[in-house]
Amino acid sequence: MGTPPHVSRKSSEAAESYDNCTGFTSSLPATIASQGTWCLNKDVSTSMTSGDAITINTNNVTLDCNHFKIGGLAAGTGTVTNGVRAASRFNATVRNCNIRGFYRGVYLNAGGGHLVENSSFDGNTLYGIYVISSNSTIRNNLVIDTGGSTASTSLAAGIFAAFGVDIINNTVNGVAPTGTDTSAIGINTDFNGSGSISGNRVRGLAPTGAGVPYGIYTTNTGRSIIRDNDVQGPGPGVAGSLGIRCFTNEGTVLDNAIAGFQTGIANCFTGSNVVNSN
Predict the structure, then answer these.
(1) 233-266 pLDDT tens trace
(2) What InterPro entries would the database entry show (predicted)?
């Protein structure tokens, strides 16, 4: 199979730590069109205001950034560019990346079996991580300072997931949307009954006007499992603020620590949680 556009093959002199790399993403935009592990060995950035900075266009691809940056800040707050996108693909892995300044940092939709791990998402304007693909996992990521989009002012969320995604051991710190009365959501799921939300930390929610801070918010989901999360709100004086919200009481909430919301838990079957109303 040929080399994808804007991606160069590994040289024989490559560092030992890159020995498992099929090739390198060296400039943006890039399309990965053959299976294997594709790597970064330097920071890459773009000022494009729409489209996808990196497109995963086949199954069974790992994008390993080796802790280098994929940057989109130059496009400004009106960007609708995604940092990394895979549509109707299977088994995409995004790891060890620092993804900054995009509309969605990672956008994986349809297909399934994806993994987003050990990455930092900083200053993305609408969502840090957006995965709507079954049997997928989002784990061990840092999602900070999400929000500020002038292209969409309806909300901002650190992590959004749907259709069976496990969300495990992530930190979401700082969600600040634009708009007049706009809500800030730490972790938001939809139709995610076959996924769980566990071991996460959510804090720094800053809605605008009459908007509401939601720590963990589920919709259209029955038997969700939400446990062992630390969820911190801006204080109980914010009207409507809600720590954890289940869609129905089929959702089980257990062993969470929740503080700084007007309502700690809503619509859930609850176990041994700690809710501090202060």
Answers:
(1) 998 888 899 999 988 777 789 899 999 999 999 9
(2) PbH1 (IPR006626), Pectin_lyas_fold (IPR012334), Pectin_lyase_fold/virulence (IPR011050)
